[in-house]
Give the backbone structure.
Amino acid sequence: MSAFLRLLGLILPFASLVIALGASFLAIRMFVVAQEARRMTTMNVALLQSLRSVLHGLSAGQRAQPAQIQTAPPPADVVVLRGADNISSAAIGLLNALTDDPGLESSGVLVTQLGAHVWDDVGWLSADWRTALANALQRGHAVSHVLRAPKTDESDRLVMLIAQMLELLGHRGQYQAFLVAGPAGPLVTDLVIISDAAALICFPGENRALDVALIVSNPDQVQAVTEIGVRFVQDREPLLTQVRTDEDFNNELTRVEGGAGPRYLVKAGLSVLQIPPEIRTDWKRREQEFLKDPWTEERLVAYHDRLRVRQASFLEQVTTTPYFEVCSTEALQEFIANGLLPRDDVAARIRAELIATELERRTVAESIAERLRKYRNYHLGLLEKGNENDPRTFWEVKGSWVLAEIFSENDSADWRNLVIHSPLLAGALESYFLTEVWQGIPAKWRENESMADWLLQTTKSRTEVLT
């Protein structure tokens, strides 16, 4: 299970863990997608003719050399490609056109990755492909990425895949990923669609490997292919979504934590659920003093109300549902001794330290100690400095959901909130948490009674020193 810590490397960003993941295993053939396209009931005659021609050649076992076009020339707005290298180059070219053509400023991109070798093909994961996709996102194009859902024994590869996705977040355009149960059908393997511009249709060869593709640019043809592609994302919940604002991320936390399932949290500091809403709201209010565009009182009230809802969900569920929380010993000691809030408890981008008062520290510590003794399903563990699991950011598993907050060690403006819905990934991280993170903590730092005693004794010693 140590692979799961490494796989979290990019998700949470433990850079050293990413290397251990071995990006060489990752095969993400990225594709691109159409915004709102008009629905069509029949495909253009020219497109159908080209499809029949290609399929006839495949059924007859005919193979052309790479870069060759069929002997019978297709219509001018249909191009036939053979060979994985040519197809990959064409896909990159379509993406590059998005950044070169100002007329495509707001185009959408849809890419499906449903082939049998979705986890092993590396041709579509070349540096040029990823760069072209990132450039399209930077220009403001929205990208929808549809993938075949991994098997139960491919959970480690799913994590590596998500790690690769992180470089596609944080741009002007929104990136979303979707999982589907299997390939589109016996004929079409994958699609790359750029709304109102072009579509690339891939067909499988032997062992469903990337073999033949069509590029269509006639508007009617593109719309016909788009109708097929959008079915993969309509009414489907994204696997991974970047939440743009702190408020929206708090809304997601409130929604997810209100659902069923155990909760596992790894964080540099204490969980918000263990801090009285009035105290946490006051910290948020003080934080606003450092911002150019501070929250209004109305937004602060809404924030306070969300905290109360989240804590109500905790108190309602903790009598029957396990709640495990892990934070660093150093962060908790700094909080009790000096009132220093850990970086994930305050917007790091303000580049300022907020200090909790003596009363706030004592109130929080006593409240946690009381809950540790009252609820047998609530557990708090401390990771000592130097532990390989020592958190530098925040991640949480709740039911089939994974939520994470990522920020750069060097760039306070590089701040990303992620919401991932995947029973497979959530189950894998739950197993990792219990077997690697939790069991790796010495008993004295995770048993309820000893933790409650330590909190109260540490607070008492602090008070005695001051008096």
